[in-house]
Amino acid sequence: MERYFQKDIETMPVEKIKELQSEKLVKQVKHVYENVPYYRNLMDKKGVRPEDIHGIEDLHKLPFISKSDLRETYPYGMLAVPLSDCVRIQSTSGTTGKRVIAYYTQHDIELWEDCCARAIVAAGGTKEDVLQVAYGYGLFTGGAGLHGGSHKVGCLTLPMSSGNTERQIQFMLDLKSTILCCTPSYAAYIGETLKEQGYKPEDNSLKAGIFGAEPWTEEMRRDIEKALGIKAYDIYGLTETSGPGVAFECKEQKGMHINEDHFIAEIIDPDTGEVLPEGEKGELVFTSLDKEAFPLLRYRTRDICVLSREKCSCGRTFIRMAKPMGRSDDMLIIRGVNVFPSQIETVLLNEGYAPNYRIEVDRVNNTDTLDVFVELLPEQLSDTTEGIVKMEKALSAAITTMLGIRPAVHLVPPKTIVRSEGKAVRVIDKRKLHD
Ligand code: DLL
Description:
Layout: H1 7-10, H2 14-35, H3 37-46, H4 67-73, E1 88-91, E2 101-104, H5 106-122, E3 130-133, H6 141-153, E4 156-159, H7 165-174, E5 179-182, H8 184-196, E6 208-212, H9 218-228, E7 231-238, E8 243-249, E9 256-258, E10 263-268, E11 282-288, E12 299-305, E13 307-308, E14 320-321, E15 332-334, E16 337-339, H10 341-350, E17 357-364, E18 367-375, H11 385-403, E19 408-412, E20 427-429, H12 430-434
Parallel strand pairs: 3-4, 3-5, 5-6, 6-7, 17-20, 18-19
Antiparallel strand pairs: 1-2, 7-8, 8-9, 9-14, 10-11, 11-12, 13-14, 15-16, 17-18
Helix pairs in contact: 2-3, 5-6, 8-9, 9-10, 10-11
The structure holds 5'-O-[hydroxy(phenylacetyl)phosphoryl]adenosine (DLL).
């Protein structure tokens, strides 16, 4: 039987969800207008006043917020409550520019942890579980979010943080962890290390994994599931909207349910800002309905995906988002062709390689070049040089079929591509370095 963390909310009829969102939106717009001068100014410039917002049908009238607004208002300019009412900050993992700082009141923390608890229960978690949190702790929201959710569900929580893989594995086996939470690339690495140490998937007690914070393909999901002997669930979120738990997968695994009692999701055309109908691909925009301290309205995530309100057999009525297929700002344009790293990953895994790769883009004599470095599996190593060249050609042809442009493929020895304990860095765009 399907279990829910908050059944009354999670299975609410769609009409009721919309009514609830409308009610909360009216209040939230007023709260932001009155307390955030920067957003008030944006609304004034657009000629919209809080009285013009009667419900979700008026959402499109509001101005967007983007990362550049957050940079401009860094560090306190988006705060909607006195700093003395805040109990926590978290921050983005970004390495360029100013980091985004998110503020939380105690109420904001509670609702964030509820969202994470919903995700854990949807992945089969109960108070009988031992939940190993191998997302980073600290400023990053992954560790804190899943940790809080795990407490709410009543799991025995292992606050491992990321890294120290040997110790990670020792605790996992000794304490019989049943749920693992980390980035998909770290889960793959843990699986690989277990195999190297001579363990089989059935030697661990894991039943599920809750993986997110970076894009991963269905092929990578199958790889991780096989390596660890688990069911792997996706979880989505961003610092700006609290952190993980904005959306999560249920046992159906056909997209992630968005916690619509707390967030309104829209899909827009990233170039024009026009709102697109359900089912069309575009940029995801979130409005947070309940957050007190850092309540962003119409925040542009840059994540490209599709929404679906199709009925889900789990009974949850919340709209679902497909796996984000990349970010509008991470999309590479190579010789005029739009390329998402996830497309390359799909081909690699379909062709029998591990998800250990690096993509390098450069510009030589005014022409874009695409180099894909892929690690060989130990069992592929014994092949002759001609054999390797043949494999490189075959892989290059498969990627060409997917992308429409031909990459230079370089098969490299096992363990020569740096592993990630957090979010993997898979793309190096050298063109940016020359500009
Ligand atoms: O990554 C929050 C998080 C932690 C989500 C743990 C899930 C698990 P940021 O560091 O602010 O927050 O990065 C947010 O990561 O806009 C997406 O581009 C990407 N992202 C997050 N989850 C997924 C996912 C956390 N499941 C940015 N699939 C987002 C694909 C994801 N991309």
